[in-house]
Write a structure and sequence with these properties.
It is a single chain. With 304 residues, this protein is mainly α. It has one domain. The protein has a two-stranded antiparallel sheet. Helix 2 packs antiparallel against helix 12, helix 3 runs antiparallel to helix 4 and helix 12 runs antiparallel to helix 13. The radius of gyration is 20 Å and the shape is globular.
Length: 304
């Protein structure tokens, strides 16, 4: 590979990191809930709701921080709603998550129309933009500055959260209790762990992560909200968590793979290839990866 090609490849890294950020944030949230035995299927709806509330709160207050806080809160509240549906109303977890996704898609569209008269994007709901971060000294280093500096603040949050979540799940008493609940709720209850409390906490934290990813979509990608702007990224985050084999680092690498697929698809749309075909790439890649993962798991189980 020539120097020009290498530099061109590095210049593509910021786009990959930008696309990966909301997927990774949501996938880490899914990981936390999954390890507690309550897989967050409502991730798509939570991400969409976080994006909507982030813009509304930011537009109302004139503060990007308020928008981010609002997105985190609404994500956590929806996690609590999902937990209440499962533990109080005794509803099925999967069906409750699907219902939440449908309700969020319809609800955000309705509220956007009532507030602006437009179900698409609207300048009257333009948000403040969350800042990018320039790292002193590193930013001035050729190539390395492109890789490590000048990214969105939530990009740094997402990747710094990976070791944090990993340590939480494997090294802290609360994380170990959470994993115990996910592996065997009955045994955890016998050991004196409040299973319901742990699972409710896991869904709330999961929703907060997903809401943060939604805030990035409407306050980092762009500075407005549009109908269904999550565009399936919540489901892609679910695939990333499954591909990550239940670990924070594995989830990060899977998110990077899926983010790269989406970034490449966007870049190729302007190269004469059918845009409809390129738009399917981010969804085809996780399907192929999950099929490969399932086949590999079957072989391992057969050998065992």
């Amino acid at each position: 590979m020539s120097d020009i090609d290498f530099v061109g490849l590095l210049s593509f890294v910021p786009a990959i990191l930008r696309v990966t950020t909301p997927i990774l944030l949501a996938a880490l949230g899914v990981l936390i809930s999954d390890r507690a035995g309550v897989l967050n299927i409502g991730v798509e709806g939570m991400m969409l709701s976080g994006a909507f509330v982030g813009v509304v709160a930011s537009a109302a207050t004139g503060s990007a921080a308020a928008g981010l806080i609002g997105a985190i809160i609404v994500g956590g509240l929806l996690g609590a709603v999902l937990a209440g549906a499962v533990h109080i109303l005794k509803a099925d977890l999967i069906l409750s998550g699907i219902a939440l996704n449908i309700a969020a898609a319809a609800g955000t569209t309705l509220l956007l129309f009532l507030m602006t008269g437009d179900k698409g994007m609207s300048g009257s709901l333009a948000s403040q933009v969350l800042p990018k971060v320039t790292i002193p000294v590193i930013a001035d280093i050729p190539l390395l500055g492109t890789l490590l500096s000048g990214h969105h603040i939530l990009t740094y949050v997402a990747f710094l959260a990976v070791p944090g979540v990993g340590i939480f799940l494997t090294r802290t008493p609360l994380g170990l209790r959470l994993r115990a609940v996910g592996e065997s709720p009955e045994s955890a209850a016998i050991a004196g762990i409040n299973v319901v409390r742990v699972q409710v906490m896991a869904l709330i934290v999961s929703g907060a992560f997903v809401g943060t990813g939604g805030a990035f979509l409407s306050m980092g990608y762009v500075s407005w909200f549009s109908q269904d702007m999550s565009a399936g990224r919540g489901f892609i985050a679910l695939a990333a968590e499954v591909m990550g084999h239940g670990s924070a680092s594995g989830t990060m690498f899977a998110s990077l793979l899926l983010g790269a697929a989406e970034a490449i698809a966007v870049a190729l749309q302007g190269r004469g290839l059918p845009s409809e075909l390129m738009q399917t790439v981010p969804y085809i890649v996780p399907v192929i990866a999950l099929v490969v993962y399932a086949r590999r798991r079957q072989r391992l189980l057969a050998r065992a």
